[in-house]
């Protein structure tokens, strides 16, 4: 999993990535300089839980992907089954090509448990 995160972090504009459970427990992390693991995990958990509750209230079950734009950057959350891939992006990034890399990383992490050892 760490290898997948490290490869994703090589994409232009990616500042770091991690996998967290919906309650904010860090499964794996590869965050760049200046990003605090516990803070990113707390933000991720809070955002995921709030949006999932709101979606449920609207009758929409499941959160597949969410993008938060802020003044300092972007956060992308992708459901990977047992948790969420969280990717921190530069604020000036055009996400078109990076979105393909994020989706690929999420797919690979989601399928790690299916790979025979």
Description:
- By secondary structure, the protein is of the alpha+beta class.
- The chain has a single domain (2-111), classed as Beta-Lactamase, CATH 3.30.450.30.
- Helices cover 38% and strands 27% of the residues.
- It contains three helices and five strands; from the N terminus they run αββαβββα.
- Helix 1 (2-8) runs antiparallel to helix 3.
- It starts with a helix and ends in a 7-residue tail after the last helix.
- The model has no long low-confidence stretch (mean pLDDT 89).
**CATH level-1 class:** Alpha Beta
Largest sheet: 5 strands, antiparallel
Structural class: alpha+beta
Taking all Cα atoms into account, the compactness measure Rg is 14 Å
Number of helices: 3
Q: What is the name of the CATH topology?
A: Beta-Lactamase
Second-tier CATH architecture: 2-Layer Sandwich
Number of domains: 1
Strand order of the largest sheet: 2-1-5-4-3
Distance between the termini: 14 Å
Going by CATH, the homologous superfamily would be: Dynein light chain 2a, cytoplasmic
The count of β-strands is 5
Shape verdict? globular
Q: What portion of the residues fall into strands of 2 or more residues?
A: 25-35%
Question: What is the residue-averaged pLDDT?
Answer: 89
Low-pLDDT stretches are none
Order of helices and strands: HEEHEEEH
The percentage helix is 25-40%
